[in-house]
Amino acid sequence: MDRIHLRDIAQAPIEALASRFHAQPDEYLEELKAELREVLTGMGGPRQREEFVLLQKLVQARGDLSPASLMRSHRTQLELLVAIKTGIQAFLHPDICVTQSALVEVFFHTRCRNMACHVQIPVDDCSCEVCSAKTGFCSSCMCLLCGKFDFDVNTCRWVGCDSCSHWTHTDCAMRARQITTGTSSKKKKGGGAAAAPEMIFRCRACGGTSELLGWARDVFRACSSDWDINELVRELDSLRRIFHGSEDQNGKKLHEKAHESLERLRSGTDVSVVLKEIHRLFQETEVEEADDSSEDKKVVEPQEACSRIAEVVKEAVSKMESVAAEKVVDVKRARLSLESCDREVEDKRRELTELQIERQRKRQQIEELETIIRLKQAEAEMFQQRADEARRDADDLQRIALAKSEKVEEEYASRYLKLRLNEAEAERRYLFEKIKLQEMSRTQNDPAQMVTMCKIQYLLNRSSSKRDATAMETSAPTP
Ligand SMILES: [Zn+2]
Ligand SMILES: [Zn+2]
Ligand SMILES: [Zn+2]
Ligand SMILES: [Zn+2]
């Protein structure tokens, strides 16, 4: 099969690769997405993370991509490209319902990459420094400082600018020292008397400042009814840290109250009791602020300024409320996709643990086998040694046996010869006796025969002496 690699997606010309995509079966394309999802999780260790950084660099360095060329890409090819560029796995989800053109817009930073927000950017054609940088920043869901988005928008962990409605994480703002004591833009405009500076937030986008006590009050009024004890603890902790350096009375009171409420929650006081107290404090601070401003108005412009402030406050509150309602829907949508991602991550984690256990088990087995092999080797060496010894013994025994059998054979031969000698001797004696008898009977009649007999006797005597000599020779080597 014409295999497509992730690096091909990052590098190869769009149209040529699109036709290769069209030739692949759907299952193969799903496998390719799963492969990239795994790289994006980074769970495979530093090598995988390096691979992702490389892919992203390759995509970012390309000069051949345009909205028109991406519109001609294969759908899966485009999803993979967007996921590489944004680093967001959600674009690889099987149930993703985003049009091809919306994906192209996400790729070219004209649509928010947050699937739960997905608005056209820059929002309201904002021309602030951050939005006009066209780096994919979305002022309706992302933090001005870190560029990230999450699902905590209805909490004290996000603060909005009263002037430009851009959002910032309170933690990011505290780290960047953009939450300090000072005078908010509205108070400056109102030209109120020089009261003690309050806690304010300075917006990076427009440079405006927003007061924080009223903001905290609005967040608590709009959202605290849904909070459980853990959420309330988190919110109180944010308040405690935000109002820590307060110099004005109300800020100090709120800081103390947050601190005290945390203690009380820890010692078992009910969430509703603690909330009621906080709301009472917010109410008191509101009355005090109203008193202060009405005093101010006596000095400057009494009725009109007062109603203008009330209007602005009302407007801010209603804006907050409408944003809050929108955000709740967004959060729900985003939470669903997050949950499915979480589940996937959890599954992978479980698989990883199982694989680790399995690997551990195999390693133990290998170690056991190695020990057994070492034992067997030692045994084999021992047996080899014994076999060598036995072979040496056998050789010795064979040598001894050979020597013995040679001796036995020699003995046998000598005995046999002796026996034959005795037989020959007996024969010789018998013939000798016979000749003697014949000789005695015939000497009287035939002198010629007498001569023949003498010859035979001489011959017999000679052969007998020769045999004796041979017998002496054969028996000689026997000890
Ligand atoms: Zn902006
Ligand atoms: Zn957005
Ligand atoms: Zn942030
Ligand atoms: Zn602003």
Description of the structure:
Residues 142-207 form the Zinc finger PHD-type domain. It is found in: Nucleus. The protein has 479 residues and is mostly helical. Helices cover 68% and strands 4% of the residues. It has 15 helices and 5 strands. It has a 3-stranded antiparallel β-sheet with strand order 3-4-5. A two-stranded antiparallel ribbon has the order 1-2. The longest helix has 141 residues, at 302-442. The two termini are 93 Å apart. The chain binds zinc ion (4 copies). One zinc ion (ZN) binds next to loops.
Features:
479 residues; mainly alpha; three-stranded antiparallel β-sheet; two-stranded antiparallel sheet; 15 helices; disordered C terminus; binds zinc ion
User: How would you sum up the major sheet?
Assistant: 3 strands, antiparallel
> Terminal Cα separation, in Å?
93 Å
Q: Can you list the ligands bound to this structure?
A: zinc ion
Gyration radius from CA atoms, angstroms:
57 Å
Q: Low-confidence parts, pLDDT < 50 over ≥5 residues? A: 475-479
Mean pLDDT: 87
How many beta strands in the DSSP annotation?
Answer: 5
Shape: rod-shaped
Please report which band the strand proportion falls in: under 5%, 5-15%, 15-25%, 25-35%, 35-45% or over 45%: under 5%
What is the number of helical segments per DSSP (H or I, 4+ residues)? 15
**Portion of residues within helices:** 55-70%
What class, by secondary structure content? mainly alpha
Strand arrangement across the biggest beta sheet: 3-4-5
Written as H for each helix and E for each strand, in order along the chain, the element string is HHHHHHHEEHEHEEHHHHHH
